Each structure stands twice: as C-alpha cells, then as structure tokens.
Amino acid sequence: MRTHKEQLDERKQKILKAIVHEHIHTAEPVGSEVLVQNYGFDVRSATIRNEMAEMAELGYLWQPHTSAGRVPSDLGYRFYVDRLMPAPYLPKRQVLTAKEKLSTIATEIERIVSQTCRILTGLTCYTSVATQPISTENLISHIGLSKVGERKLLLVVVLSSGQVEHRIIDAGHHVLNVEVMRTSSVLAKQFIGKNVNDIRNSEHKSGSTDNLMQSELYQAASTAIDQVINELGTSEASVHIEGTNCILKQPEFKDLNKLETILAALEHRTKLYLMLSKAVLGPDVMVIIGSENPYHEMQDTSFVGARYRINDRTAGTIGVIGPTRMNYRHAVAAVEAMANNLSELLTALSLS
C-alpha cells in the first residue's frame, strides 16, 4: 500500500497546496486555469486538469458540481495541515495587542476565560470555545453575606482559582444586620482555607450545638454553599462560547439545514466538552478536520484547539470552530498564542 507521500508526487502536492490557499480565499471551487494563471505552473491547463482528476480519484479533492473546479476533501486538508502548511504565523502586533487586552481585565476566572475567547474570535473571525479550568486543589478564599432585602441575602463564594459564585438565599424571616455579620463570621471561620473536595466529603453541619448554626439564616447559607461546591464538579465541564454569529458569515453555512445543525450542536455543551477534552489528551495543538470529528453534527466544521495550563498542570482547552475551509495556518497561530496568554495569566494569579 502506497503512503500519502508516494500517492502525491511533488507536482500534486504543489497543486493541492495552491487549491487549499485559493479555496480558503475565495470559497469557490478551483479550476485548472486559475492555478496556471495565478500559481506559476509551467504546464498546460489540461495537464493540471488531469492531475486534479487523479487527485480526486485518490480522495484528496472533490467536485461540487459537474462543470465546476475542485475543492479539497477532508483528506486533502489533513495532508495540507500535516505536510504542506507553512509555519503558523500571527503578526507580532496582533500578538502584543491580544496580550495587552487580556492583562487589563479583572481576576475573576470566568471573565478571564470569556474575554480570552472574545479576543480569539476577534483574531480569527471564527467561533471560539474554551473549557473552565479544572482544579484539583481549589480552596475557598472568601465568603460574604450581604442583605438585598428584608429576608433575602446575597452569598458570595470566591475560590482560590479565581472563580466567583453568587447565590440569592432566603433566610425565612426578617434579618437584622447584626445577624448577618455574625453568620458571615462563622461561615468564614468554618470554610475559608478549606479544600472544596474536603468540604464536599465532610459532615460539617452534623452534631452542632451552636445556637447560631441552628438558625434559619445559617442553614440557608450553609445549604447554598453546599450547592456551590457540589456543582463545581459539573461546572468543570462548562464550556464558554463566543462569536457564534461568525458561523453566519461563512458561505458554506448559507444552507439553513446545515446552519441549524451546527447552531444546535454548539448548544449541546456536554458533547462540545468531550470534543474539547480530546485536545487535553492529545498534542499541544490539535486539528480535527470535518469527518474526523466523532460528533456527527460537527462534521461540516473543523476545530483547532490547544491546552492551557496553570503552572505545569493542564487546566483546560481553548480553540476555534470554523468551516473546513479554515485558514489553518492563522488559526493554529492564534489559538496557540491565546492558550499561552491564558496560561501565563492564570499561573500568575495562582501565585499571587
């Protein structure tokens, strides 16, 4: 059995590279005449046409219409990404601007990840996605209670990862300021500095004889904290999405059926998380092209993703989703740059 390289000689590889570049730029099928005129092939158009026909038989190209030119297949894009694509490149000015934008935002981890996705969408014009950081040593660093009504209070739980959780709780009775202060103090002593996994597995409310810890306010606040901690296990699988409207700008998705399928897929966060998780287990930058995606509804798209880290530990994945006619060189460079920026910022925050 011949290898891909043996199947595609030097001229076929040059033709494939030219077709990929032309199709990325125009979103139209590429004919032999365009290649001869624009890409310096020193042979007749008929020769290029014959080569393209052979490449189509091998599965690297396909023909959308009988009279049209050819476009790359998923196999063609894979060969291009693995063997022909120039080194990933992002202008230095864009790299610096992206880093500056990210460094000016607050220290709440959810905002940092969301803003990173926004910047990445701005760099690529593709939909950006990222997983929430997974933390094995998440501590509670702050707990606060404040009144927002006669019997309603705002509970704020801040984690060492930078994640901030808010809950509105009902005390069940008219609450005095002194009760709020005393309950806040007890909650702080009980929870601050504790590992969330230890709290989740402990029976911290059982057997207490403290009158305050038997109060309605304490019970409501403690129950809300338990809910926050228990939901952390599922929120680690949460996915941030920015730039969904970028899908609408792609010519490939003017077909309403395709568009609806992809938009519905983007709302299915669990499957998206599983796709993103593959990048955690794979190489630093992963490219999933079209039919390579096990998620059937996403097989008209490509995904470029990279791991980001907190210190030396893999914490999550960030990437972009776009058409298979993606500018892979630019997308890989942008994703890699933003993964590095996110890693640097989250590592700095973890050490501060």
Verbal overview:
With 352 residues, this protein is of the alpha+beta class. The chain has 3 domains: 4-84, Winged helix-like DNA-binding domain superfamily/Winged helix DNA-binding domain (Arc Repressor Mutant, subunit A); 92-134 and 237-351, GAF domain (Beta-Lactamase, 2-Layer Sandwich); 140-235, Heat-inducible transcription repressor hrca homolog, domain 3 (Enolase-like, domain 1, 2-Layer Sandwich), CATH 3.30.390.60. 48% of the residues lie in helices and 18% in strands. The chain has 13 helices and 10 strands. The chain has helices at residues 4-7, 10-26, 32-38, 45-58, 74-84, 92-103, 109-124, 177-191, 196-200, 216-235, 256-267, 269-281, 328-351; strands at 61-62, 71-72, 127-131, 140-147, 152-159, 164-170, 239-242, 285-289, 301-310, 313-323. The longest helix has 24 residues, at 328-351. The termini are far apart. The model has no long low-confidence stretch (mean pLDDT 86).
Going by CATH, the architecture of the largest domain would be 2-Layer Sandwich
The CATH superfamily of the largest domain is known as GAF domain
Task: Characterize the largest beta sheet: strand count, sense, and whether it forms a barrel.
Answer: 5 strands, antiparallel
Please, how many helices? 13
Q: What's the end-to-end separation, in Å?
A: 57 Å
Structural class: alpha+beta
Q: Indicate the percent of residues in helices.
A: 40-55%
**Sequence of strands across the biggest β-sheet:** 7-3-10-9-8
Shape: elongated
Q: Average the pLDDT over all residues and give the rounded result.
A: 86
Task: Report the strand count.
Answer: 10
User: How much of the polypeptide forms β-strand, as a percent range?
Assistant: 15-25%
* Whole-number total of structural domains: 3
Order of helices and strands: HHHHEEHHHEEEEHHHEHHEEEH
Radius of gyration: 26 Å
Give the oligomer, counting copies of the same chain as homo and different chains as hetero. single chain
The CATH class label of the largest domain is: Alpha Beta
Could you name the ranges where pLDDT drops below 50 across 5 or more consecutive residues? Answer: none
